[in-house]
Amino acid sequence: MEARMPFHNRLVAAVLAVFALAWPVFADDAALDKLFDELKTSDAQASGRIEQEIWNEWSKSGSPAMDLLLERGRKAMAEGDLPAAIEHLTALTDHAPDFAEGWNARATAYYQMGELGPAVQDIAHVLTLNPRHFGALAGLGMIFEQLDQPKKALEVYKAALAIHPHLSGVLDSVQRLEAEAAGQDL
Questions:
Q1: Which of 39, 77, 119, 175 would give a disulfide with 110, using CB separation of 3.0 to 4.6 Å?
Q2: Signal peptide location in the record (predicted)?
């Protein structure tokens, strides 16, 4: 029995360490809930700050290595090296499939390459993992517009606005699409 105690102690310590490391992730959900509540009632100026705080939370994978892959993918996108961005972000989604922001960043890279099918597939992953991802919804709306599906685009844009009432560019898109639809009805 004594030989099992050190193993048991190490096992308990390992399990406690996992829960201790996971605790901030659970706390972030409460912080995000608070930010989303603030976002719904904020004015346009305050919403920009709140939106940035939400993006900051979404960008935390919980792993420095995964955060580095996200950073490298975003940097490659910013530099216009979309194949490298997709390579980094694919490594991220392979190693952290439950990290929604990895999928979202890769969807953006695919969209920028004109690869709409893979972009939509990645957006589906994002929304499965994070149904409140207003950025993914806005991106999906842009894709629907590009595919000449204005009714679907309008529906998705409105879903994004239900989450983030002051989402930049989306309000304009909704007004434009509604005006176009009204013009068609005449």
A1: 119
A2: 1-27
Those residues of the chain that have pLDDT short of 50 are 1-27, 186
| 103: nearest Cα among 90, 116, 117 | 90
Nearest Cα residue to 130 out of 176, 99, 161, 85: 99
CB 154 within 8 A of CB 171: no
* Residues 105-148: tens digit of each pLDDT: 999 999 999 999 999 999 999 999 999 999 999 999 999 999 99
Cα–Cα distance measured from residue 10 to residue 6, given in angstroms and rounded to the nearest whole number: 6
pTM (2 decimals)? Answer: 0.82
Instruction: Say if CB 120 and CB 106 are below 8 A apart.
Output: no
Contact 77, 119 (CB under 8 A): no
CA atoms within 13 A on the CB side of 7: 4
Determine which helix (DSSP H) or strand (DSSP E) holds 182, and give its type and residue range: helix 170-185
